[in-house]
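#structure-requests
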Amino acid sequence: MLRLMSEVLAGRRPPIRLAGHSFLPVAAGALYWESENTLLVADLHLEKGAAFAARGMMLPPYDTRSTLQRLAACLDHFSPRRVVALGDSFHRSELAGRLSADDREELAALQQGRDWYWILGNHDPDLPESIGGFVCRSLMIGGITLCHQPSLSRAPEIAGHLHPVARIARRGEGIRRKCFATDGHRLVMPAFGAYAGGLNVLDEAFSSLFHWHLMQAWLTGRTSVYPLQASLLLPD
């Protein structure tokens, strides 16, 4: 467990500032909002391995367990009173009702003693009551909208959906890692799921979301998260 903790928890870097609030990015891909005692995660894509297996694409069927274990490590460290999952928590809606008994028990244990919100995503637009917690399309906390897909709204927001990754050059080699992308007004979360892929933040899908002269990509490392200016980023 100690090794797992060292791999997923961020070092004490300066916090991300968004709309007057401070957030601590976690190397695992979570975001801790200390003043609200809230942990945010996006795009868990639980049961993605099972979905691929049903289509004849065989992957090791351990992604759900791995994702929940990493999430448990974050919860053990921060002990948040509230967790918000920003959509695509399940790779398909119907898979939420097909969790193994062990995974259902693990999820129930993670929810124990705290408020848990599932924001609906494009992969999971309907979720059953059996997963526990509260299901909603969006949530507003402290004047910040929490949602799945980024919008062009002028209101501050934190979203998922796009699975941002950043690529840089270091010592002559390219490094490509999941990242938090923000310009201080909007923040797009990295995908937390074990099997979730990523889209380069220089892709045109991000071009209308940020003021690029203010944009930073907070690159996830093994144990910490590193803020980088947009000028240092490379395309794939």
